[in-house]
């Protein structure tokens, strides 16, 4: 565990409006692959052939097999100390908003009550014909591709490259970002927009921005503090220092 610096500790003690922005690194210690870097989903795979509407139109089974495999992985993963520490922070701070790019559902399973999902959910299916959405928690779907009652094909309820983010989630996230005094950016490479722009927007609006990541990212030079280590070790340190 790493203790927060005096400045961060003072800020945490003042109960600031806080945003925690997370990416795939927050689930790494649950055994789920991140996207970039060694062993990541995009190593040896072209995201354009798996995570775009064009790829789904051309090869729905290829895309579905990828997402169904990710559902299976996520279903057998358990929330890790980073997810739990975020729940603990939520209890200690009166105004904390979790904004995630993750689709795995681990924040929710850890107990985060309210979450803004920027990239949708692996557990939501949406009809490509009638647009109906439904939750489906089965780890693997049979048959693939799954069908809707209307006869249309269902697609994963995630946001693909080239698609708009859900308007309501974006609006809520931007509002929280504008109004926060502290932002914790955890486990994201800060390469994918619009999420990658949020820490800079928060900082421009006067927030103290902290990055938790064992690697440096394009955001690192712009943050107030960078904690160099796994989220499952750093975040519990923040919580215990507030006790
Ligand atoms: P990335 O795979 O791009 O980045 C994961 C980040 O987590 C990296 O910066 C790692 O250094 C960091 N990391 C790894 N282990 C960690 C740990 N234990 N604790 C803290 N950090 C750790 O994942 P995202 O930034 O989430 O979109 O990627 C953003 C979007 O790009 C995803 O939502 C996905 C992807 O393509 C779509 O599929 C549309």
Automatic annotation (TrEMBL):
Supply the enzyme class, top level.
Answer: transferase
Q: Any idea which UniProt keywords this protein has?
A: Cytoplasm, Metal-binding, NAD, Transferase, Zinc
Q: Where is the Deacetylase sirtuin-type domain?
A: 1-243
Please name the GO terms that the record assigns under molecular function: histone deacetylase activity, NAD-dependent; NAD+ binding; protein-malonyllysine demalonylase activity; protein-succinyllysine desuccinylase activity; zinc ion binding
Reaction catalysed by this enzyme: N(6)-succinyl-L-lysyl-[protein] + NAD(+) + H2O = 2''-O-succinyl-ADP-D-ribose + nicotinamide + L-lysyl-[protein]; N(6)-acetyl-L-lysyl-[protein] + NAD(+) + H2O = 2''-O-acetyl-ADP-D-ribose + nicotinamide + L-lysyl-[protein]
Query: What does this protein need as cofactor?
Result: Zn(2+)
Q: What is its main location?
A: cytoplasm
Under CDD domains, the record lists:
SIRT5_Af1_CobB
UniProt note: domains? 2 residues (Tyr-67 and Arg-70) present in a large hydrophobic pocket are probably involved in substrate specificity. They are important for desuccinylation activity, but dispensable for deacetylation activity.
Name of the protein in question: NAD-dependent protein deacylase
The species this protein belongs to is Candidatus Polarisedimenticola svalbardensis
Its gene name is cobB
């Amino acid at each position: 565990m790493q203790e927060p610096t005096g400045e961060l500790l003072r800020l945490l003690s003042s109960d600031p409006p806080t945003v925690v922005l997370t990416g795939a690194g927050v689930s790494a210690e649950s055994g789920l692959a991140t996207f970039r870097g060694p062993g990541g989903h995009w190593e040896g795979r072209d995201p354009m052939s798996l995570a775009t509407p064009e790829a789904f139109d051309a090869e729905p089974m290829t895309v579905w097999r990828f997402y169904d495999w990710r559902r299976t992985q996520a279903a057998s993963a358990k929330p890790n100390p980073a997810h739990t520490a975020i729940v603990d922070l939520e209890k200690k701070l009166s105004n904390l908003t979790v904004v995630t790019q993750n689709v795995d559902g681990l924040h929710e399973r850890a107990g985060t009550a309210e979450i803004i999902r920027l990239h949708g959910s692996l557990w939501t299916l949406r009809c490509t014909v009638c647009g109906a959405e439904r939750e489906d928690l089965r780890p693997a779907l049979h048959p693939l591709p799954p069908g809707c009652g209307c006869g249309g094909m269902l697609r994963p309820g995630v946001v693909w490259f080239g698609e708009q983010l859900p308007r309501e989630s974006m609006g809520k996230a931007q509002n929280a970002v504008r109004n926060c005094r502290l932002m914790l950016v955890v486990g994201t490479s800060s390469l994918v927009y619009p999420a990658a722009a949020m820490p800079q927007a928060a900082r421009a609006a006067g927030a103290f921005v902290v990055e938790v990541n064992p690697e440096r990212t394009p955001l690192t030079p712009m943050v107030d503090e960078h904690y160099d280590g796994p989220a499952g070790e750093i975040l519990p340190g923040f919580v215990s220092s507030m006790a």
